[in-house]
Each structure stands twice: as structure tokens, then as C-alpha cells.
Amino acid sequence: MEACLKKLCWIAAALSPSVALAEDGLTVSGSSRIRYELIEGQPRTGFNASDDLLNIRTILGVEYRAGNLHLGAQVYDSRAYGGNAGTPMSTNEVNTLEPVQAYIAYEVPGAFGAQTKLALQAGRFMLNLGSRRLVAADDYRNTTNGYTGLRADLSLPHKLTATLIYTMPQVRLPDARADLSRNKVQLDRESGDLVLWGGVLTKKLNASAGALEITYLHLGERDSAKLATRDLSLDTFGARLFREPASGRLDFESEFIVQAGHISASLAPSAPKLRVCSGFVHAEAGFTARHPWSPRLALEFDYASGDGRGPKFGRFDTLFGMRRADLAPSGLYNALARTNIISLGLRAEAAPSKRLDAFAAYRPMWLASATDSFATTGVRDAAGLSGTFAGHQFEARVRYLLVPKRLRLEWDGVLLAKGRFLEDAPNAPPSGTTVYNSFNATVSF
């Protein structure tokens, strides 16, 4: 392992371009990350039982500030090497030379009174809203999520803040397998055929109560000349009560989300509409000890509905949310998501120094619906005869700043001991226990 990490360091350093900070409010920054990942016992259907992949992601950003005016642009260059026809390579891995951000922003202090502030943003930008379970700029994944549209951030009296958006999510291109394999450069597409709008309202409570968030988002998707869709119209309502972790005290989080709307039964233009009725719950309680390592132990619970029999559609849609912080890494593993899953979790984390942090987690997992596919594995028993226990997942991560603010090393590992469902379902891969490893080196400048 030591030799592998040293090799990653040399490659990452070689990839990092040199840059200087300019004056007059202009800042140039970026990073290069190289990741080598391996998997044995792939739990998802239709892919190699064993695989490895090299991912390289380079980010270059430019910002200019002049008073309350802010201009920004950022290019992501995400590439993958070493895959074959059975490798799960998609736009999650490849998006070359993409201007994910190119925006203008302006701040208006006192817009609605002395204690208020309004910040407006227009163009292409990334988003992180609330808990990031519905809208996030994914960081573990080799590519990220971008949006084109308008954003308004309000700071109001009585510890109230709000974020309002009207956006067209960027559809990452190319998406053809042959183009992805050769890392083809093609600009992402946005249009009125896919829109996301809504907002988040946050109220800070007293120190012991934490904060309360209320979320509403609407996702609309319809057929275009280039792409047939299931004509989704989805309303998402959420409420979240939380208190951030701090030394020597309990922290907590509870989030409840319900979804309603309609979706076509298939891609066919004449397909009947199904009523959407789905939901998600996350509950968590933790404690951070007063110790130089800041050790924290937490209990977690996640429920995301699955689709069942009948005229309704019950599979929860996590929209553009991240999964790494709650469930598991993406990449070659990418087996868990907030859909058709029930899971308990025990998590332990610590930061022995400013340069080193780590966590380990264990979670048993079940299906919320026995007749739907489990999470994002594609494994399904339409008859519901394979039970609902999916297995035991053990996960860990270690990060170390080899050179503060410049070079970070990271290892991620997952062991999935498959349960009855992932072993006995009709299309379950006969691949045995899953072992996933990811080695990362990130140079920042």
C-alpha cells in the first residue's frame, strides 16, 4: 500500500499546474485529484465481478471581486482510464473540460431594512442546499452537479435566512459509452425540458434547540427532441431539525421528506400517468467527547421508500443529492442510495490532529419494498420471494494532509457481506462478498 500511495503522490504533483494570485480582486485557484479504485464482488447487476479504474479530476477556478460585485468561473476536467465494456463507467466518472460555473453575483446590504441582506446570482453555478440530501455539489464523485439559472439568498431579522432558486440542471454530456471511454469533450446541455425550482427557509433556534429548516422543491422533466423521458412532475416537501456536533455535548438531526406528483409508467408517449407517493426519513444522535482527538459516536437511521404493487409510484427520488456522507462511496461501488432502503448505522469518527481524520461505520440494511430493486444495485425480485435483508456494510475512511493546504491523501474502503436478498434474488450477481478500495491524492493550489 505504501508504494501505491507514493506513486499517487508523484502523479498528482505532476498533474498540478502552477498558478499565481493576481491583484485587484482577482483570484485563481484549483486542484488535481487522482483516484485508483478496485472492487471485488460487484453487487450491481450487469457489470464485471472484479474491476479497477483510474479517475483524474482537475478543477480550475477564477474569481473577481469589486465591492459587492462578484464574477466567477470554474472548469472541471473529469476523466477515467482503464475501463472495459463491463466497467460501470458513466457521466459520474467522465465530463471533460466543462465550464460548470460561469456566473455574476451581487450583494445588496439593507435591501429590505437595516438588518437584511440580499445576494443575487445568475448564470452557471453549483448548489448545496440544506442537508445536501436533495441538492448538492457532489465532491467524492469524479464529476459534480451544475445548474443554470437564478439564485437569491436572503438574510432577515430574527435569525431567519432563505435561499430561493430557479434553475435548469445541467445534463452531463457525452453519455454514449464509446464517447465516455475516449473522454470526448462535449458541452453539457441545459433547457426548459428539465427544471428545478423552490427554496429553503432556515430559522436558528436557541443554542440547545439548534435550527429548523423547511424545504420545498419542484422538479419537472419532459420529453425533448433528443431525449425521451418519463415526464416527471415532482413536488418535494421537507422539514429538518438539527444541532451541529460540538465538543462535550449531544448533537442530533431529524429530517422528514415527502414527495407527490406524477410520472409516466414508461418512456412511451402514450404511457399512463402514475401518482407519486414516496418518502424519506433520516434520524441521528451523536456525542463528541472533550478530548484532543474530538472522538464522536453516533447512531443513525435511514428510510427511503420503494415502489410496490399497484397504480402508485413509491420509489423515493433523492433528486441531485449527495450520498457519500450518509451511506457509502460512489465510484465503482455506488450500490447505495436513498431509495428502497432501510438502514441502521453506528458511526465512530475522530481527528487525532489537524492533519489526520478518520471514521468507521457499520450498517445492516433491508429493502423497504420486497418487490422493488434494492437501492441502486439493480437487483430485484418482482415476486418478493427473496426476503428483504440486503446485508451488512462495513465502511471506513482515513485522510491525511501530507503537505498542509497542498497535498491530501485519502483511503476509502467498504466491505459488504451480502444478505439473503443480494444472494438469492433472480438477477443477483454470483460474486460473493464485496470488497471496495479507493486510493486518492489531491493537490490544491
Description:
Helices cover 5% and strands 51% of the residues. It is mainly beta. The protein has a single domain (2-444), classed as Porin, CATH 2.40.160. 36% of the residues are buried. The model is unreliable at 1-22 (pLDDT under 50).
Which features does this protein show?
3 helices; mainly beta; disordered N terminus; Porin; 18-stranded antiparallel beta barrel; 445 residues; 19 strands
Q: How many distinct beta strands?
A: 19
CATH-defined fold name: Porin
Give the biggest sheet: 18 strands, antiparallel, barrel
Tell me the overall shape: globular
Number of separate structural domains: 1
Rg from Cα: 22 Å
Structural class: mainly beta
H/E topology pattern: HEEEEEEEHEEEEEEEEEEEHE
- Unreliable spans are 1-22
Query: What is the residue-mean pLDDT, rounded to a whole number?
Result: 93
Number of helices, counting only DSSP H or I runs of 4 residues or more:
3
The CATH architecture would be Beta Barrel
DSSP helix fraction:
under 10%
- Percent strand equals over 45%
The end-to-end span amounts to 26 Å
User: What is the CATH class designation?
Assistant: Mainly Beta
